[in-house]
Amino acid sequence: MALPLREFYSITRAAELLGCTVDDCVSWAMSGYIRLHLSIRSAYGWVSPFDTSYFCDDKKAHGLFEEFNKLSVQYLGESIPFNFDVDMPTNKRNEFVMMMREQCQKISEIYPYVIEVIDDLDASYFYHCIHYESEKYTCHRFSSVLSLYPIASNIGGEYLKRLEALGVKRRNKEDGAYFVRIFGYWALGPEFFIFHTLKKTILAGMMPKMFMAGSNFNVTLCVDKDFSFEIDELFISKKDFLSIRSIIDGKHSNGSMPRKYNIGLGFSRDIFKIEAEYRGKEEPSSVALPQNNKPERISARMRDVLALLIDECFDGEKSPTKIAEMLESLAREKWEKDFTISKDTVRNWLKKK
């Protein structure tokens, strides 16, 4: 009997079940096909105020209309009384967004858990922006955001001082309402991917974005000291797991995965400055991405053969890190050229099916 799917899989477990490598998963995240999440107990940052202009371009406005019109029919028994037109002038688009805002509030009053059925990333972002502005918190099943204003604890006050030390000024009380604490599963933003490399160390003073699970709603983190994470601490959502599996199972005729996520959303223009900050700092945990997006399938028999060869050649060594180092050393000796292989690839070889 098949087990029910998990809502989130660790990246190593997902790669094992899908028959691909961890590097493949990182590559797909870099390309916007999937997202990689961290499980956060508590972190501080800030959210931007509701921005009407973000939702006014053709694609986002049309998606917003389709999603909320469907929800309006389902929960209010009526279509949205608006003639949507992609050629609308700016003032008409602003009017449209305000109407979507009113409709969203009506639906959420009748069905408070409507967010659970919103599948569109920007419609979810729209909902969370509105809900946060009115309630000063918003949450999904797996991600939560809580305002720090008014400050109810010493840690909140200390956090605001650290923000100001980083140059984030509180101009008035309204601005303070956007200082937040987050917890739950949050997806890595574009600042974690620099020049085709996953950065597993974020330096103090950087301001990376993280995205709420299943949404484009994002929070800018306050990083007052360096922090790092391991590859095993990353998670893939059930939805993205199923997207990969559908490609492997041949359910898409063209064999390509839909690009669902815009990794450039909110991307810092100071990319070269960011890279310069890393230069000279050793970061052994960075992961180089592969050059293709095809899953590497390894049969059970091939795994057994690789395990036997490794056991024979390296005197029973079991550590993937040490085996990767020995393979690189052997390649330099035999081929007289640089050869790199990650410990995750070796770990994938050694796993028993």
Element pattern in H and E: EHHEHHHEEHHEEEEEEEHHEHHH
Stretches where pLDDT is under 50 for at least 5 consecutive residues are: 265-274, 280-295
Number of strands: 12
What structural category arises from helix and sheet content?
Answer: alpha+beta
Task: Kindly describe this structure.
This protein has 353 residues and is of the alpha+beta class. It is built from twelve helices and twelve strands. It has helices spanning 11-18, 22-30, 58-76, 90-110, 121-135, 154-165, 173-176, 238-248, 271-278, 300-313, 320-335, 343-350; strands at 8-10, 37-46, 137-139, 143-147, 179-188, 197-198, 201-202, 209-212, 218-221, 227-228, 234-237, 287-288. The strands form three sheets. Strands 1, 2, 3, 4, 5, 8, 9 and 11 form an eight-stranded antiparallel β-sheet that branches. Strands 6-12 form a two-stranded antiparallel ribbon. Strands 7-10 form a two-stranded antiparallel sheet. α3 runs parallel beside α4 (90-110) and α11 packs across α12 (343-350). It is globular, with a radius of gyration of 23 Å. Mean pLDDT is 77; it is low at 265-274 and 280-295.
Which characteristics define this entry?
alpha+beta; eight-stranded antiparallel beta sheet; 12 helices; globular
How would you summarize this macromolecular structure in one to three sentences?
The protein is α+β, with helices and mostly antiparallel strands. It has helices at 11-18, 22-30, 58-76, 90-110, 121-135, 154-165, 173-176, 238-248, 271-278, 300-313, 320-335, 343-350; strands at 8-10, 37-46, 137-139, 143-147, 179-188, 197-198, 201-202, 209-212, 218-221, 227-228, 234-237, 287-288.
